[in-house]
Amino acid sequence: xxxxxxxxxxxxxxxxxxxxxxxxxxxxxxNGGVNAYEQYLFSAHxxxxxxxxxxxxxxxxxxxxxxxxxxxVERRSDGSRGGREWVLLAVHSRFARVIANPIFAAVMFVASxxxxxYSPLFRxxxxxxxxxxxxxxxxxxxxxxxxxxxxxxxxxxxxxxxPFRLLLLLGTMAFHAFFGLAIMSSTGLLLADWYGxxxxxxxxxxxxxxxxxxxxxxxxxxxxxxxxxxxxxWARSDEKETKRRDxxxxxxxxxxxxxxxxxxxxxxxxxxxx
Length: 274
What we know:
Elements: H1 2-6, H2 13-31, H3 33-37, H4 42-60, H5 65-72, H6 83-91, H7 94-99, H8 102-117, H9 121-127, H10 129-151, H11 162-184, H12 192-195, H13 204-217, H14 220-252, H15 255-273
């Protein structure tokens, strides 16, 4: 931001504030008390998971790090690759075209929940530190890609029109809520020999159901924020398009409209002559 300011450009301060807030929240979730308790309470684990995959990306994505890098980092002119070139190369790679696709991002966002908690992956992340770190990275990235497909301004290969973004958000969150309800109504522990053996003086199954409630409820606030953001961007997009058409009409002297009216007049004259 300082570099942009020195050359006379501007970067919205709210983007920096949101990015820093997202990084602070990420640091707390992965290093604070919640990170310690999630090894013993399923509810703490699910709460941390939901914040990691939903709340943190909602703060980080508006920070638009790729756009800031593209604007602030100097382009190399000697044919070598620096930070800017490597980042843009990764963003425009074939792999990025796949994972940044809105449909793929939404499927990964939802499917990861079901596959993770109902497969041996859950046990691996509890027993192995590498598995735990993989879980953090995976769900942070899947959440980031999903939010990016909805409200991000960083360059991506394909963006859905705004109406379809809202439909994608509502459909995805419906499956997400169903996941939370499935855990709330479960009659058995997902990891009985782990959470059921902690002896914290609380019923492990009741705590698991609290975790399911967190999975269902924590997503509501980020979902509302995303829906509002998409609606605001939609309105701004329509406003920009209207202004663009007005400027085009001013430059051309409304030539297109005059040509259209003249064509209608010629058709009317031809019909009267016949």
